[in-house]
Amino acid sequence: MTSVPTINGDLSKNLEPLIAVLTDDTAQAANIRERLLAATARFVAQGGAPASASMTERTAYLITYGDSIRRPDQAPLATLRHTLDATVGPLISDVHLLPIFPWTSDDGFAVTDYHQVDPALGDWDDVTALAQNRGIALDFVANHMSSEAGWFRGWLERDPEYADFFVTPADDFDTSQVVRPRTSPLTHRYERPDGSIVRAWSTFGRDQVDVNAANPATLEALTDVLLAYVAQGATTIRLDAIGYLWKESGTSCIHLPGTHAIVKIWRAILDHVAPGVKLLTETNVPHPDNISYFGDLTDEAHMVYQFALPPLVLHSFLSGSASRLSEWSRHLEDLGEHATWFNFLASHDGVGMRPSRGILTAEEQEALADRAHSSGGRASYAAEPDGSQSVYELNVNYLDALVDDNERQDDAVVASRARAAHAILLAQIGVPAIYVHSLFGSRADIAGMVESGVNRRINREKLDADALVSGLEHDARRRGVFEALSHMLTVRRRHAAFAPTSPQEVLDWGSQVYAIRRGSGAEAVTVVVNVSRTPARIEGRDRIDVLTGDSVGSIDLQPDGVVWLKEG
Question: In 196-309, where do the E strands start and end?
Fold first, then answer.
């Protein structure tokens, strides 16, 4: 255990300007401050948090549901631990567990009890066991909860403990500018036990009711949840859909100053009592809004999702040109030493297309939607203010989307393309996160998508642990993808050039290749990936390809070819 700091005046002083963003009422500001300090004091009194490791070139996250891998008569969280120990060992340093709490809908994102592990997955002891060898990222679904949650039922019952915990907009509340990620109504009607009807704000649908973070008691309760996850061993906290947390009449109700102030409040508290624990914000929005959650690079999120990367990598292989990806990468902001990107290609959701606006043309986005459909997936669209439609999300198995209809039947080509795409992911400045179905070379679960009627289920299949382990030996696609990714993870861990904040320079070596140099001096590694379908000529002096140990001079890099070059 780390030494437990006391709650002193420094934290109170640091909170004051942040609370001032939430309210200009002196009495309410004092109430909020005392409640936040009380929550922090309870955490300290209970023993604080385990030590958190710093992020290095050895850091790599796995994104997974708690039950993505199953075995009969074994808690899925225990199955996950045993399977990872047996297959990837230390190559995966951190595991992002998608919501592991009791839930009623949205595959876990309508939580009924923040403090309990879903018994269908295991218990907190299983999380603790998993955390013995790996960092743990837990999902904090702070914006909303299930309509069956105890907090919401208490609010419906008019229990004073939950008064004002949820948002009932006044009749004069102007919602005309509210940004919506769904087409369902903004508010829904709920029946109280006495038969009366009340409306509550529900950004994501009737079963996901938004909390009222402007209420001091609600903010205290949310802070208790955050710190409880840290006490249970979480080293990263993912703030799901956090951009929608604060509501104000006449505004977009997304990315508001109140939301940023709360994230900064939680960062200040963690820095004070659990230094090293990282905040990761999930905001699937255009790049400028996304990076706003870095604050001043020291006071808000430690990491933000690099949402533009998945569609740009997919576009590169579909078009045979890395120009868009290279140009975008070349202009990424310098984040310094205290913040970094959370890079990924595939996830439990789809490929979000909003972050690619202004980078890809409408025609290029539509081409990606066509690829999703041709690979058995789906594409969803959003209405624009002018009445037109734009591609919102691709629901697709990422490995399938990387290849065309003919190539998809060739396991060797799928493995080669997966290797090339993930070489870009692993080289990109920041920390890499690999989705469980990408790591293990899974195919699209089209039957699961069709039977459930949920498009995102195409990439959420539950795997039998023993069949998976057998498949890694006998299934050509699983074996090829897994071996290629594991090898690159192994090599990456040996080179400080891949540390999250190590410098990155995008090189102009022609549109056929994505080429970046990571690190500097003798430690630098130049990563080159051919995204085209023809050989690419790479001129150069003799260097060592650290992936193979071979000496490399001028070469014709074959399609999907990858080299990681270092001075000999």
Answer: 197-201, 208-210, 236-239, 278-281, 303-305
Q: How far apart are CA 80 and CA 64, in angstroms?
A: 9
Q: Are 342 and 393 in contact (CB under 8 A)?
A: no
* Average pLDDT in the chain: 95
**What's the token pair of residue 251?**
């505004």
Strands 378-383 and 389-395: antiparallel
3-class SS at 536? Answer: strand
Beta carbons of 223 and 38 less than 8 angstroms apart: no
Task: Please return the burial class of 25, using the count of CB atoms within 10 Å of its CB with bins 0-12, 13-18 and 19+.
Answer: exposed
Bridge partners of residue 200, in order along the sequence = 188
Q: Tell me which residue of 101, 129, 134, 95 sits closest to 117, measured CA to CA.
A: 101
- Secondary structure element (H or E) that encloses residue 551, with its range: strand 550-552
**Quick one: tokens of 214?**
């402007």
Q: In degrees rounded to 5, what are phi and psi of residue 393? A: -155, 145
Sign of CA dihedral 244, 250, 252, 256: negative
CA distance linking residue 455 with residue 49, whole number of Å? 38
Residues 6 or more apart whose CB falls under 8 angstroms from that of 60 comprise 91, 92, 93, 94, 426, 431, 432, 433, 434, 489, 492
Q: Which of 269, 374, 246, 202 has the alpha carbon at shortest distance from 40?
A: 269
Give residue 5's pLDDT. 45
159 is catalytic: no
Structure tokens at 349: 């959701």
Question: Which token pair is 49?
Answer: 């948090």
Name the stretches of the chain with pLDDT < 50.
1-5
CB distance 84 to 92 below 8 Å: yes
CA–CA gap between residue 197 and residue 58 (Å, rounded): 54
Q: Closest by alpha carbon to 290, among 358, 381, 205? A: 358
User: Which among 240, 349, 545, 560 is annotated as catalytic?
Assistant: 240
**Angle at CA of residue 282, ends 377 and 206, nearest 5°:** 70
**Full DSSP string of 465-496:** HHHHHHHHHH-HHHHHHHHHHHHHHHHHTT-G
Handedness of CA 207, 211, 217, 221 (dihedral sign): positive
Distance CA 288, CA 204 (A): 23
Q: Residue 269 to residues 52, 239, 300, 538: CA-CA distances in angstroms?
A: 15, 15, 11, 50
> Residue type at 408?
R
* Pairing status of strand 525-530 against strand 562-566: antiparallel
371, with CB counted inside 10 A (0-12, 13-18, 19+), is buried
* Tokens, residue 113: 């009890």
Sheet holding 513-518, edge to edge: 504-507, 513-518, 525-530, 562-566, 543-545, 550-552
DSSP one-letter string for 264-287 = HHHHHHHHHHSTT-EEEE---S-H
pLDDT given for residue 451 in this prediction: 95
Q: Element (H or E) spanning 89, and its range?
A: none
Other CB atoms within 10 Å distance of the CB of residue 227: 26
Angle at 263 between CA 262 and CA 266, to 5 degrees: 85
Distance (Å, whole) CA 281 – CA 289: 12
Q: What pLDDT, on a 0 to 100 scale, did the predictor assign at position 286?
A: 87
CA separation for the pair 191, 136 (Å, rounded): 38
Contact present, 232 and 274 (Cβ < 8 Å): no
Separation between Cα atoms, residue 254 and residue 407, nearest integer Å: 41
